[in-house]
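Page 37, top half.
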Amino acid sequence: MKVGLFIPCYVDQFYPGVAIATLQLLEKLGVDVVYPQNQTCCGQPMANSGFQDLSKGCSDLFIKNFNEFDYIVSPSGSCVLYLREHLSETGHHNPDYLGNKVYELTSFLTDVLKVETLTASFPHKVGMHISCHGQRGLHLSSMSELVAPGFSKPGSLLNMVKDIEMIELSRIDECCGFGGTFCVTEEAVSVKMGKDRIADHLLHGAEYITGADMSCLMHLEGILKRQGSNVKVIHIAEILNAGGNGSNN
């Protein structure tokens, strides 16, 4: 199994530690990982702003860089959802569509590698933020408004981490308000939603807020810093890679 690692541009520029943690975690789990050096933005920002035609160059480069891999893994649900549904190749209805090979990290760990144990350790109280793209687009976790059995792929992995204390939130799948360009065009609404999301974590004593999308965590981090809070954000890859070696026995 040959895996290509796709690192979104905002992670590469602002949170390189997330990329490193993702690579190290996959390697600890015995995955043959390659990082194509010429990769760049997936094209989502242009498409979300109504300029899908301007993203074709990004799509063409992505196909060129990743066409040879069995799987493509990325620590960003929003970018993965965009690639799975909008990559300008043959369309996601085609079984040979390259976008079908793109996986968000926690989905790859649970659905493909079928990880059952981890030796990571993270002795802190942690609240988990479920990003909308991951939950409602990639089905990484159940939706609280549905009458159906609950599940959480990120949550199942975090429960394997030694000494971690996961807090229970009052509103488990509320949007943080980031929404990509939404936080620019509707700044006041976005900030209010982010403050409400943080308040739920603070109410239940979180020391860290984690999630599978660094974009949402970046939004929350900005609000936390402006509030002078000691609560930190951390990508789930950094927790799963913390203090031990991975195992998928």
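Page 37, bottom half:
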Amino acid sequence: MSSLLPLEPSAAGVADRDIDPKLVDLADAEADEILSAIASRTARDILAAAYAEPRTASDIADAIESSVQNVSYHLDRLCDADLLEVVETWYSEQGREMAVYGPTSAALVLYAGAEQSTPSITTALERVLGGVGVVGVASLLVHRRWRALQPSVRAVRGESAQQSVVDSASAFATGPGGVALWTGLLVVAGLFALWYWRTYRPARRRTA
């Protein structure tokens, strides 16, 4: 009779998990713990194997040709250093739970130097303003092109070519130029919000 327990389902790899890169300054205290945890070749092989594919301790031992006891020792240290974590639980045919280990970050980067690794929000806002300018110019060109097609329509309707400022603004807001402007602004705002939540905030938390 086959077991009703799941037997080694596919575990999500680094590319499939919503995790960010880990940036650590060599001057930080965290770097000491990380360097201590990966000081041995075995620990680095274990870390590389987990990045390649989430695995159990026995699978990692087979992959790097080491004993399960040795691998388990280094796994505990790598977890304590917040480099690996249990990402899933598999079950053996006997129903025994087996922890599946995967990396806690999309990449591990140790850096040295005074330059801040945190993305600059000032630079990002400058790019946003530049994007807004491009959107504004593009929307005006769309509006002018659309207006160039209007004289023949007004002539057919017997309308005057002269418009007040209010009428011109209203025509822009309700015409293709206005649509292009608001669509472009929404795209720029969405990209900035995505950058802020996916890049800036995680980087600030890591360097805080």
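Margin note: The longest strand covers residues 84-91.
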